[in-house]
Every structure is written in structure tokens, then in C-alpha cells.
Specification:
mainly beta; about 240 residues; 12-stranded antiparallel β-barrel
Length: about 240
Amino acid sequence: MRPLAADRPDATESPQTVDAGHVQLEIDIAAYLRDRSDTVADGWSFVVTNFKLGLSHNIDLQIVFATHERLKTPGGTASGFGDLVVRTKINLWGNDGDTPTMLAVMPFVKFPTNQDGLGNNEVEGGLIVPFGTELPAGWGLGLQLELDIVRNSSGTGNKLDISHTIVLGHDIVGPLAGFVELFSLFPGERGAGWIGTLNAGLTYAIDEDTQIDLGTFVGLSREADDLVVFLGITRRF
């Protein structure tokens, strides 16, 4: 099989797919969110899972769901199951590491399965395009473009949000590696401000099929969450 490649813990997805016939679980064991800028909120999520199934040599199916979320704001506390997202990843080249670059496309649809008002109760979707390449001195570079067709804040129509990321990763010692990443989102709505975060984290490969990670996203703009901290695991079967 190919070396383990996960879509977590950074915001940049991997261009590589899960090997055909194999299952891969990528789980946020626990994550904490804090925002004291544009809004006032404290949130927790537990066992946010990306279930991935390799369908062919270069295509996998992904089902993403939040088992339990809890968000506290001045208006009250909401908790329960989150929305469900169905994605598919199609690798266009570089899946086997036989080229210096890798590229994939990932169409997705979000279904409003949330409880207690944890979502906007709209069907939404979009397209993710992740790119990866190896740099000199053992560095890895990832770039991503994402187009999201989502409901506008007034609920009267749809808008196009555009986001992009750039991530650099490097081995530190043995199975321990780290990354640093810049995330930017430009909302497609008049008056909505730029959302930017600076992200960093560590990964540790327990074996060829298991990886644990931890990291943080730090808000760079008023509209972004101030802080997100998370712990996760990836396991391939």
C-alpha cells in the first residue's frame, strides 16, 4: 500500500486517496473553540469523524460527521449531532509518488443533520482542489483552493465563498513531524470581512497505519475564531 496520507490535522487536504478496498478513519477526538472578537463563544466537539473508503486506485468516498458538538454563546447553549458531509476525492496525478507533484479534486455536499440549531439547515456544497509537492531539504508544500456555494446571512439566496491555504511540513525527529499553515477565506457577501488563521501542529506515526496529532488554529482577523485546539488520530484498516 501507499504510505499513510491523511486529510488532517491541517486545513489543507491531501491529494492522495485511500487504497482501493481499505477503510481509513480520521477522528478529532476532542477540539475546543474560543472566540472573543466578532462574537463571544466557547465550543467543544467530540469524535468528529471522517470515514473514508477506497473505491478504486485513485478515487475514495468520504463521510464526515460530528458525533457531538456543544456551543455556548450569550444567547444560550446548543448541543447535539452536527451536519453530515459527503465527499469524494479523485486523484488526477501523483497518487503513487511517481511524480514530483500531486493534484486532486474533491466535490462535496453538506446535508443539514444537525440538532439544536448547530447549523443553518441548508443543503450546501462545493469543490476542493488540493495540490502537493516535495521541496528541497525534506520540506513538503501543500496548496489548496476551495469554492463553497452556501446560503447568505439573510437566507435570501446563495453566495460563493473562496478560501485557500498554504502549508509547509517537515520531519522533526524519527516519526515526529510538524507543520505550519496559513488559511484565508474571502466571503462572497458585501460587508463580510476576511477570515484568516495561522495554524500549526505535530503528527506522530505510531506505525505505518496509525498516526496521532495535535495542533492549534489561531485567528488573524476579527471575523475568525480566536483559538481552536484539537487532538486527533488517523487509523487505516
